[in-house]
Amino acid sequence: MSLQKIKQNELFINQVEFNPKVSLFIYNGKSYLNNQSEVSGAFTNNIGNVPVGSINLYEENVDRNVISTGLIYPFISKNSSLASFKTISTTSFNSDFSYGDIITGSYPLSASITRDYYSSGESRDKVTALQNTLNYYNKLSQFYLYSSSFGDKSTIPLNLISIPSIFYGNNIEKGTIKLDFYISGTLIGTLEDKKRNGELIQTSPSGSNGSGSVAGVILYTEGFIILTGSWELETGVTRNYLNDITNQVTSSWLTFGTGLGNESFTDGMIPSSSFSMQFKGSNKVPIMTMFLHAKRGELNNSTNPTFISYGSNIVPLTSSNSYYESNTLQPSNVVSSSYDTEPYLEKTTFISSIKLYDENKNVIGIAKLAKPVRKTQDRDLTFKLKLDL
Amino acid sequence: MSFKTFTSADIASTRTLLHEVIPLTGTVVSGTYADNNIKNYTHGMFQSVYDYPYLSSSANHILDLTIGYSPISALSSSSATQNNKKINIYNQMAQVLMGFDVTGSIQKFDQDGNISTAGTKLNECVFFSFSRLLTKDEIKKGSFTLQFLTGGANTSPSDLKTISDYGATNDYRTNSPAGEFGILYTSSATPNTNSGVGLVYYQAGIAVLTASIFNGKFGPRSDTSTATGSINTYFQTGSISGSADGLRNRLYNIQFNNSTELNSSIYFCRANHNEFNYSSNPTYLSSGKITVKNISTDAPVSYITTIGLYGADQSLLAVAKLSEPLKKSVDNELTVRVRLDY
After folding, report:
1. Which of A24, A387, B226, B313 has its CA 20 to 30 A from that of B72?
2. CA–CA separation, B192 vs A154, rounded Å?
3. Residues above pLDDT 70, as percent of chain B
């Protein structure tokens, strides 16, 4: 083993951007992420143990239920670091647990896209919290303004769709959002951000009511869609979007995504309506690339015991006042010969792994080679290491 | 926005252990999925067990099963099936988990873990290598339990034995290159130097069990041939994957707790009475007046919403947001505790 310092021109940091495509289909109170439906297992009807439109944060309880197999769950012991689970309130942490007590959490935990509908004048904490953010994007479009001639978002009917960042990464890719509204499988409205400025414009069906109008805005970095378009997408037909048979409303962008959590929903409430949402995420991954050189005449010695020829006595002689290692140990000669004679010794090593050290000589990374690479004294080698950060 | 430099008294480090309870029933390992969750490889040196049929993207790798014996084992014979591979597996496991002696020879697995004395060596072993997904940083000491049906025929195994690292919370060994390890005992035995039946390596996530705890006919449940004999016979005549099938056939339950080390830095951000009472936020002033004050003669007041942690070169490293703004004036002093987990 030998140590070499990586020079400045041997180390590069690049960034790779990934754009995972996300599609969500919503029908009858259930959402389907990337067209995946429930998978039945031996112990559960849904092996993921979370709703199919959700992302499982800890994929450890696959096809398990409490009775037959028991669930994996986390626990922590209360100590002076005051660490706890988010589900435990500060009051409960202080009063219900003594030091040394076990505090348990539960799996599975999931993240899902949710919808909040606000009728005219209804209080709306989540929208109010976005006031500064919405006003900040005013430079992109006047439709972002919290209160303007296009409406006051603190009072008008509003449809807020919240997308957790685990669905998209750093931000939603601009211009990739597409919302489709279907009745009995027929498309009655599509929203897209054609101008890539966050305005959600109705682009199809061509000539439909509201075509070309802005129905809402999207916050690409924060992961929110705010829909305010209240025009009828389906003329003269009312449906039970509000789960109130006496108060049926027409299909509009305010009813988009009905059944997407956070609201009361009855099975079969809106049997004809379905919704689709598509977008691309954006994930930026910095990648460190290192070029490590094994030059000729270098790295031709090993401290591995097998580097010494078989039968050599590698055990040092020790006594109460001395420590002696033999200075006549011969390296193994691995040079092949076509003849029945011992070939000339050529010091040869086989590089099987490369370790990365910090300035204090602590190992901070290990790169293993698929096959050991033969290194002879006259051979120059360069290893390319990539590290995703 | 105002800056204040931390002193050493403002920064503290803590370590917290987060645990998970991992129950693995034998039914998952054997039988439930008609062995579609069991992966055998062409090299035949070990068998992988998944928690669901492995062709599904939902499946997680749980553990690898394999067996081996030392070169000096009575089972070692040139006529034995996969003899070299069984020896190589034993040697590989032993050199990683037990290390080498002063002559460069591989240490053998030791019954009581004390390699400095002769002691009883475990020459025929079965190995359970658990997935990092389950063991995380380490298996929690004193929590590891295996339950096996150790007796009876392979077609109808019986004699349930519970094997655990009893007392390992305080009594474990540290003389392994792979970290700390405990001794496995059967529940019926009083733990002493001669009653150990295996070893569990906490950081490596590997359990080693002596083959001698199994008696009766050993082999896969489907093997009804009369040739099926003791585990020693099967280790010699059977393949490694067949022995792994036999182990799964007798596995009743595995349970352990894992540990994840959470390191935290705690920054005590202290705002004295005469600090942080003013803001450079553009909305703080309107027409030259402080907007959060009603009477001009009142002392300045501000609302703290965010704390930014900066590096030595004034670059922003982290941001802590308060759940609600804190009122700060000359009348009060605040200490905000910011915890950074990593």
Report:
1. B226
2. 73
3. 99
Query: Which pTM was predicted?
Result: 0.83
> Do residue B32 and residue A83 have CB atoms under 8 angstroms apart?
no
Identify the pLDDT of residue A316: 80
In angstroms, the CA A243 to CA A96 distance is 40
Residue B199, exposed/middle/buried by CB under 10 A (0-12, 13-18, 19+)?
buried
Mean pLDDT, chain B, as a whole number?
90
The predicted complex's ipTM stands at: 0.86
- In sequence order, the 6+-apart residues with CB closer than 8 A to the CB of B255 are B21, B22, B23, B24, B143, B144, B145
Point out the residue among B21, B58, B134 whose CB comes nearest to the CB of A62: B58
C-beta atoms of A75 and B102 within 8 A: no
Kindly state whether B59 is in contact with chain A, defined as any CB-CB distance less than 8 angstroms.
Answer: yes
Does residue A1 register a pLDDT over 70? no
Q: How far is CA A176 from CA A15, A279, B33, in A?
A: 21, 5, 41
CA distance A387 to chain B (A): 19
Look at residues A332, A312, A314, A316 and name the one whose alpha carbon lies nearest to residue A324. A316
B32 touches chain A (CB under 8 A): yes
Dihedral sign computed on CA atoms, order B210, B216, B220, B221: negative
Our CA-based measurement puts residue A107 at a distance from the nearest CA of chain B, in whole angstroms, of: 10
Q: Which of A36, A40, A61, A62 to mutate to test the interface with B (most CBs of B within 10 A)?
A: A62
- Rounded Cα distance, B266 and B11, in Å: 6
CA-CA distance, B150 to B133, in Å (whole number)?
Answer: 28
Gap between the Cα atoms of A60 and B176, Å rounded: 30
Any idea what the Cα angle at residue B145 is, between residues B144 and B148, rounded to 5°? Answer: 150
B16 and A59 within 8 Å at the Cβ level: the answer is no
What tokens appear for A306 in the block?
């097998």
State the Cα–Cα distance between residues A261 and A257, nearest whole angstrom: 9
* Percent of chain A scoring above 90 in pLDDT: 71
Is any Cβ of chain A less than 8 angstroms from the Cβ of B262?
A: yes
A-B C-beta contacts closer than 8 Å = 70
DSSP 8-state class, residue B209:
E
Question: Among candidates A56, A16, A284, which has minimal Cα distance to A170?
Answer: A284
Residues 302-341 of chain A with CB under 8 A from chain B are 305, 314-315
What six digits make up the tokens of A204?
Answer: 């199809």
Domain boundaries, chain A: 111-285, 295-388
* Mutation target among A34, A63, A135 for the B interface, most CBs of B within 10 A: A63
Which residues on chain A are in Cβ contact (under 8 Å) with B56?
39, 47
Q: What is the pLDDT of residue B228?
A: 62
Whole-number pLDDT of residue B81: 93
Peptide bond into A205 cis (omega under 30): yes
Q: How far apart are CA B329 and CA A325, in angstroms?
A: 73
Summarised one tens digit per residue, pLDDT across range A19-53 is: 999 999 999 999 999 999 999 999 899 998 899 99
Between strands B251-271 and B145-153, the pairing is: antiparallel
Nearest CA in chain B to A63: B52
Strands B206-210 and B334-341 come out as: unpaired
Å from B229 to nearest chain A CA?
A: 32
